[in-house]
Amino acid sequence: MKIKANLISGRTADQGAHLEAKTHKGYFDACAYCELNSADLERLGASEGDSLKVTTEFGEVVVFAKANEGNPDGLAFIPMGPWANAVLSPDTHGCGMPGFKGVPAEIEVTDEKPLEMKALMRKYLED
Questions:
Q1: Contact by Cβ (8 Å): 64, 50
Q2: Which listed site, 61, 101, 108, 127, has its alpha carbon 20 to 30 Å from 4?
């Protein structure tokens, strides 16, 4: 089962607190997830902590599922960082920052596990 979602990204306090240690588990835990509301998680047959594959026209990434009841139906949030960058547009429109809002995405449950930072960077280099 796949759902369509409007993907957004942004900074979080937890993500910002771990910026200086991007290869450590704290940064991984703070960034390698996708928030959906419980209705969307239920439609996917997913629970918090399950692996989700997020696919956009720009790429795909595997992250953990996290519930956020503040998200309306069809809204997915991945904190700013390498996992979000894998599925956001690289076009900066001349300002040096890519667009972080409104990216159409498909999300599905997967048996794959999210890649840690170094493995994710190796994957970027290979693609």
A1: yes
A2: 127
Maximum pairwise Cα distance, the chain: 40
Q: Which two tokens stand for residue 38?
A: 């419980």
Report the C-alpha gap between 110 and 121 in whole angstroms. 20
Hey, what are 37's tokens? 């509301």
Q: How confident is the model at residue 7, as a pLDDT? A: 97
Please enumerate in sequence order all residues whose Cβ is within 8 A of that of 61, keeping only pairs 6 or more positions apart, or say none: 53, 54, 78, 83, 84, 86, 87, 114, 120
3-state secondary structure 59-119: EEEEEEEEECCCCCCCEEEEECCHHHHCCCCCCCCCCCCCCCCCEEEEEEECCCCCCCHHH
> 0.70 cut: is pTM over it?
yes
